[in-house]
């Protein structure tokens, strides 16, 4: 199993004795990453839905903020 994982994961699990320990550790790691992605996606979706032009604000500045939200959403969905 150790031959099938990337070096970054290997450094986290190389000291474990059993394949089950390795599997449990990697599963927990990637479940946390997945949960973080879901939370961030939820937050960005909310920011997208609540986005509005505020009176007295520069349209260029608001456009940049809107583009930032869209780019972050695209990067999460694309990965």
**Fraction of residues in H or I helices:** over 70%
What is the general shape? elongated
Proportion of residues in β-strands = under 5%
Sequence stretches where pLDDT stays below 50 over 5 or more residues? none
Number of strands: 0
Mean pLDDT: 80
Describe this structure in words.
With 79 residues, this protein is mainly α. It has helices at residues 7-13, 19-50, 59-78. Helix 2 runs antiparallel to helix 3 (59-78). The relative contact order is 0.10. The mean pLDDT is 80.
Topology:
Layout (H helix, E strand, L loop, with lengths): L6 H7 L5 H32 L8 H20 L1
Helix pairs in contact: 2-3
Quickly describe the structure.
By secondary structure, this protein is an all-alpha fold.
